[in-house]
Amino acid sequence: MINRRKTKEISIGNVKIGNNHPIVVQSMCNTDTCDVNSTLKQINELHDAGCEVVRLAVLNKDAAAAIRDIVKKSPCPLVADIHFDYRLALECINNGISALRLNPGNIGKKEHTQSVVKLAKEQKIPIRIGVNAGSLEKSLQNKNISLSEKMVESALSHIKILEDLDFDMIKVSLKSSDVMTTIEAYRKITEIIDYPLHIGLTEAGTMRGGLIKSSIGIGTLLAEGIGDTIRVSLTENPVEEVYAAYDILKSLNLRKRGINFVSCPTCGRTQIDLISLAKKVEERFKNFDKDITIAVMGCPVNGPGEAKNADFGIAGAIGEGYIFKKGEIIARVPESELLETFENIVINSYK
Known about the structure:
Layout: E1 10-12, E2 15-17, E3 24-28, H1 36-49, E4 53-57, H2 61-73, E5 78-81, H3 86-94, E6 99-101, H4 110-123, E7 127-132, H5 138-141, H6 147-164, E8 170-175, H7 179-190, E9 198-199, H8 207-223, E10 229-230, H9 238-251, E11 260-263, H10 274-284, E12 293-297, H11 303-306, E13 312-316, E14 320-325, E15 328-334, H12 335-348
Parallel strand pairs: 3-4, 3-10, 4-5, 5-6, 6-7, 7-8, 9-10, 11-12, 12-13
Antiparallel strand pairs: 1-2, 13-14, 14-15
């Protein structure tokens, strides 16, 4: 059982974050925010995959203006990602955005920061301070301290700006592309603040490498009770980020959305195209939102035994497969019919 770190509670739209609420899964659209239709299409795809909060890049006035139409049809709360231009933050708030990702120290004039914070406070719009190891302030770059310490110092300076303006609807992230730097930064800041934390690695990479780095970094922090929202950043369709996030959470028993999928690594006893079959089964059931375990195993000798606790499973044989339920074989099916038969049995069991 993981003892999660106690944090302050904030709300992004109708999603509550911190204070022992379930860890929230986030992602970010890679569409042009000005293109309302394509952005809404991707938001809906992310939502269908289980994404609970979606971030949008707001690069200019046209993007800020588009927020109004996007918010009206979005199935989940949206965060506006703002860099430098306070006017974009103001327009996004006025257009119905649920939260901002904005570093107040980067806005410029004090009065500009004050105007954003004042409106955010009035509209109950949280602000995520997002520190990135690759874009720290010049004043920190040459300091003789570790990179993780620099990241924490940067975050604290932005937090102070908000706190001095009597604003505490804050969430914080400290991301690096280096796993240990990221872990160290989050560990350090948990000793200082009790604001909710958004965790993840930045620029983690493509599917294989990015998943490995993110799983180690995010998984380590989650296992230590650190983290209130997560994003698995991948150079990939952002929908894959959502599936990966839930897989990480499920592996630590922190969220239960969707199936738990089990498959064996194959061996010399395997006489069925197990790799292809396992991939197809996992794909077919990726949006099947039931808290069950599905197993795809290589042989009838060990399959039902090793995966006897699975709710449903397949054990491969010579040109066929055995379908089992809780370790008991319930059907014997030719390989060509195995996938469809298995899918029908599982789905019909929950109708």
